[in-house]
Amino acid sequence: MTDRESIRVLLADDQTLVRSAFAMLIESAPDMAVVGQAGTGRQAVELARATRADLVVMDIRMPDLDGIEATRLIAADEDLAGVKVLVLTTYDTDEHVVEALRAGASGFLVKDTRPADLLDAIRVVAAGDALLSPGPTARLIARALNVPEPLAVPPGLDCLSDRERQVLALVARGLNNAEIAEVLGLSPLTAKTHVSRIMGKLAVRDRAQLVIAAYESGLVTPGGTP
Question: What does pTM read for this prediction?
Answer without folding.
Answer: 0.73
